[in-house]
Every structure is written in C-alpha cells, then in structure tokens.
Design a protein that fits this description.
Strand order of the largest sheet: 1-2
Order of helices and strands: HEHHHE
Number of strands: 2
Strand content: 5-15%
Shape: globular
Length: 104
C-alpha cells in the first residue's frame, strides 16, 4: 500500500513502469471493502516485518543460497525489483498493511 507521496523506482514486483502501478493507501482499501459490504475486523501495519523479510531474502540471494524464489515469475529483473521495493519500504513510501474483513 502507498503510505506516503514520492516517487518509486521501477521496476518493482507488481509493475515494470509507473503507468502500470496502481497502489492505493490504506484508506482506499478501507473504502473499497466498505463499499463491497465488508467490515474490517483487524488491521495491522506490516512494515517492520517486510523490511526484515526482504533484507534477509536479499542477503541469502547475495550469498548464493538456494531456496524458494519468485525469480521465475518476475524474470531477469527479479533482483532489481526486490531492491527497488526494499528501498520504498525503507523510505516509508510503501508497506504491506494486513486487513482482515468479513461480510456481516
């Protein structure tokens, strides 16, 4: 989710260029869920988790350690996409926000 204004460096895992990126902020998702008849029962900022997770992933990749990877899906720009996303996370521009919703 988009947490703050500012430019993102592309490519990122979800888009190769700015015109293909449609990140919304938490309020956009809250409104969309409400419009669809859902109520949010829990919400949690996952920024710290994401920063740690992707830092460890990059360290493993740089060390040449094998493991499950999205590289086949993301293609040859996999490392660049991860680095750009990690930069956005560290800058506080983007972050995953976990929302749990139910339809009453």
């Amino acid at each position: 989710m988009r947490l703050a204004p500012g430019e993102l460096t592309f490519p990122v895992p979800w888009a190769s260029a700015p015109e293909a990126s449609f990140l919304g902020g938490p309020e956009d998702y809250r409104q969309a869920l409400a419009a669809a008849g859902f109520e949010i029962t829990a919400e949690r900022d996952r920024l710290a988790f994401a920063i740690d997770f992707f830092a460890r992933l990059r360290a493993r990749l740089e060390a040449g350690q094998a493991g499950p990877s999205l590289a086949p899906v993301m293609g040859e720009t996999f490392r660049e996409k991860l680095a750009n996303m990690q930069a956005g996370l560290v800058a506080g521009s983007i972050a995953p926000v976990e929302m749990i919703a139910r339809k009453p």
